[in-house]
Amino acid sequence: MKTGALILAISPPGEPHRDNEEFPLFLPMYPLDGTTAIKREISTLRQAGVSPILALTDGPTDVLKNHLSHNHILFVEAEGPLSREALLRAGLQAARQKMDRTLVVPAECPAFSPETVRALLACEKSAAPVYGGRRGWPRLLDFSAFDGEIPADFSWNALPLAELSTEDPAVLLSLLEENGAQEIQEHFKSQRRANELRCKTKIILTKEEDFFGPGVCRLLKYNDETGSLPADASRMRMSYSKSWKMINKVEKEMGFAFLNRTNGGKSGGSSTLTEEGRQFIDRYQAMERDMEQMSRNFFDAYFRDFQ
User: What proportion of the chain, given as a percentage, has pLDDT over 70?
Assistant: First the structure.
């Protein structure tokens, strides 16, 4: 069974979409994350192994063809002014000649993932991805649902669609929504960060055993702000007794006090950093900064080709 895709590179209803300088934009060519909306969609479909890919357009066809000249897709060109419903039907009719099923992809919804596409391809009948109880895009249409031609009154609402639950919130993102372009750009940035190869450094000071690292340093810095070790321990989600064990161990290993303690009283006592403790923490954090910079330099030298 052959499953391809139909990208709806058609003008949205209402006023033309505009860029930041209020110039009209052909939505499929909206600039996104170093590429365009339609090129992003084609790339995602190809990653999932979808072929052939058709683009239905009623816009500047020559411009779009030139834009996609190296993407090896097929074009369905609408003849004459048609309603959005009639354009969709024409695109589906053309897709039906080349495939058994099609993924329908609006040009304004370019942020879906290859994993979502693969999950749709595994469905046995027409389906829509669902996130947070809402249907999104792309959608899978099995042409066996129709006896003859695509009905003139074709409607997604009238079509029985299996609901594919997904963890991909991007199936709901659209350039046509208010702040949609910004949300899509932020989604792409978060995806890059999640997939970005990075290096983490952690400095642990030790003698016969480890005694000082980022955790106890943070605990002492919090105490410098609050003067309340119980509050600091709670902030770090550890027990009060564990926080004292950490500090007592540091003081035992270094041979000097890190905290001045004041016991009792209505407030339950307080604690402040000693001067030696403050100097020790300052040096530790200065070393952290230097080591982080050195690690970045070495990471770039050794792993640049893997980024």
Answer: 91
